[in-house]
Amino acid sequence: MDEDLQAGDFIISNSNSCVKASEMLKIIDPEFYQNLSEDQKKEFDNMDVNIPDLNDPEGSSEFNIKATKKESNSKTGFEIPAYVNGYADCKYDSFLGLTGAFYEAKQTATLIMPQMRTTVYLNYRLNSNYGWNDIGSAEETATLCTYLEASDIEGNPDNGDYQAVGCYYGVFPPGYAPPQSYFGSSTSPIMTLS
């Protein structure tokens, strides 16, 4: 089975629950996890990730996290905040001759991040009487960036329910805490095609 589909299935089976970030990373991006320092692995081992309720018709839409860096000058101490926001969306649209279910996840930071990774999964079900199936995914990784988007299209989609699930993770610049690393997820509202 494709690694991304295994990761999507993990998210589906853990809907509306809390898991450790390291558990998700080992499935979603094992290479990223293997290349982390031991301190970063410990951070992810101790970090909880709330997987949204995939059956919530409104979705969770956004992921937000804040970290701060303590600084001082000759007169006073102060903090410099940094924010990361993630967002997932799914919509039926036509673009450049393609018609389908466009799905995306994107994250934006208020400062240049050493590393960011965004993954989006597309879930499908015939209707609310059926369980979700992961039918597609897209991912992007970048270094020294403030914005990162992963997106794709399911062309000529069948009737039924569709939902995008975004996973966002990365590393804050040195000196920012807590945490030095971050991980979050969000879901789009459920889109029904009939």
Order of helices and strands: HEHHHEEEEEEEEE
Helix content: 10-25%
The unreliable regions are none
> Total number of β-strand segments?
10
Q: Please state the overall shape, judged from the principal axes of the Cα atoms.
A: elongated
| Average pLDDT, all residues | 88
The main β sheet shows up as: 8 strands, antiparallel
Strand content: over 45%
Number of helices: 4
Radius of gyration based on Cα positions: 18 Å
**Category from helices, strands and their pairing:** alpha+beta
Distance between the termini: 30 Å
What does this structure look like?
- This protein is an alpha+beta fold and 194 residues long.
- The protein is built from four helices and ten strands, in the order αβαααβββββββββ.
- It has helices at 3-13, 21-28, 30-34, 38-46; strands at 17-20, 48-51, 62-72, 77-95, 98-125, 133-155, 160-171, 176-177, 181-187, 191-193.
- The chain is elongated and about 65 Å long.
- The mean pLDDT is 88.
Please name the defining characteristics of this protein:
single chain; alpha+beta; eight-stranded antiparallel beta sheet; 194 residues
Short recap of the structure:
This protein is an alpha+beta fold and 194 residues long. The protein contains 4 helices and 10 strands; from the N terminus they run αβαααβββββββββ. It has helices spanning 3-13, 21-28, 30-34, 38-46, and strands at 17-20, 48-51, 62-72, 77-95, 98-125, 133-155, 160-171, 176-177, 181-187, 191-193.
